[in-house]
Automatic annotation (TrEMBL):
Name used for this protein in its record: Butyrophilin-like protein 1
Subcellular location: Membrane
GO function terms (MF aspect): signaling receptor binding
Gene Ontology CC annotation, any one: external side of plasma membrane
Span of domain Ig-like: 8-124, 127-242
SUPFAM superfamilies recorded: Immunoglobulin (SSF48726)
Signal peptide, first to last residue: 1-30
Superkingdom as given in the UniProt entry: Eukaryota
Keywords: Immunoglobulin domain, Membrane, Signal, Transmembrane, Transmembrane helix
């Protein structure tokens, strides 16, 4: 039927060669791709590693490395968390193995609180086996939006003011000053829902942005002004605690009496109340102690 003929042995040989090539290509591929673990910044990452024979490795040696750094060292029970030296500073106190998993040949590790700098290619090495075994795991740490005041030149806390308290409703103004790049400024309620606010007012001076956004509130609650700089993965906020009491008296100047207090002001206020109570109680205790026989009717 076909005009294509090969001696049977030659056909078999080329098939073997083809399969061998396929197998080695697959091996290279799997070694290059390895295993990928993607984690969000700040979370804990488990990097898997299982010896192919699944034998007990309690009395064995294994190493975890990353781009030339020593991540974790295990030597017949002595390891990086019980005195074995040589671990890279970056990983000190953050990497642990799973002791109860060792008898199953499981040399996985957990890295706590992963940082951007932890991203990279890890290898889990069993050096003493007949065929030295190495497993490759790529850790990808994904940046999240968070307060990065300490690490970037991002926007500082926005300033909340109440420019107009005399109207029926309370006007809250939030101002982000001198931020670069231009931030997004939004008002949110206590559940994080974005509230419809007025158009923000943006001005720019020397590459720095000044953004002001107003909102009118009519209900008691906690209001948050959120400033976001996506480019820097930076997000920072200030909060205002607003008390709006319903119409309680007819002689009030405004239909509703309005009040607002920032979070810190409230904390200071509570502090004073607690202090006053403490002072009062200790005064009473002291007083009653000194006059225990005086039978003061007030005590
Ligand atoms: C190895 O141990 C880790 C941590 O306990 C676990 O998450 C993982 O499933 C184990 N792997 C195997 C193959 O048992
Ligand atoms: C890690 O390995 C992958 C796949 O081999 C490669 O694409 C990547 O660039 C490597 N990353 C680092 C930081 O070396
Ligand atoms: C916010 O309200 C104040 C007071 O009424 C006003 O001066 C300011 O221009 C307003 N800002 C915006 C962005 O509308």
């Amino acid at each position: 039927m076909s005009g294509f003929k090969l001696p049977p042995t030659a056909a078999l040989e080329s098939l073997v060669v083809f399969l061998w090539l396929l197998a080695s290509f697959g091996k290279i591929l799997s070694q290059e791709n390895g295993f990928k673990v993607a984690m969000k910044e700040g979370s804990d990452a488990v990097l898997p590693c299982l010896i192919s024979t699944a034998e007990n490795i309690v009395e064995k040696i294994f190493d975890w490395e990353k781009d030339g750094q020593r991540v974790f060292i295990y030597r017949l029970g002595s390891h990086s968390n019980n005195g074995h030296t040589g671990q890279d500073e970056q990983f000190r106190g953050r990497v642990s193995h799973f002791q109860d998993q060792l008898k199953k040949g499981n040399a996985s590790i957990k890295i706590q609180n992963v940082k951007m700098a932890d991203s990279g290619n890890y290898s889990c090495i069993f050096p003493q086996l007949q065929l030295r075994e190495t497993f490759y795991i790529q850790l990808v740490v994904e940046r999240i939006l968070k307060d990065r005041s300490g690490e970037t030149r991002g926007a500082s806390k926005p300033i909340i003011t109440t420019p107009d308290k005399t109207k029926d409703q309370l006007l809250l103004q939030c101002e982000a000053r001198g931020a670069s790049p231009e931030p997004k400024v939004e008002w949110q309620d206590s559940s994080g829902k974005i509230l419809p606010a007025e158009e923000p007012q943006v001005s720019e001076r020397g590459g720095r942005y000044y953004v002001t956004i107003n909102i009118t509130v009519t209900k008691t609650g906690r209001y948050r002004c959120e400033v976001t700089q996506k480019e820097l993965y930076h997000q920072i906020h200030s909060e205002a605690l607003v008390f709006i009491s319903e119409k309680l008296c007819e002689n009030c100047f405004t239909r509703e009496s309005l009040g607002w207090m920032s979070g810190t002001a409230l904390a200071v206020f509570i502090c004073y109340v607690v202090l006053a109570v403490l002072v009062f109680v200790s005064y009473k205790v002291l007083h009653s102690g000194l006059n225990s026989s005086a039978c003061d009717p007030l005590l």
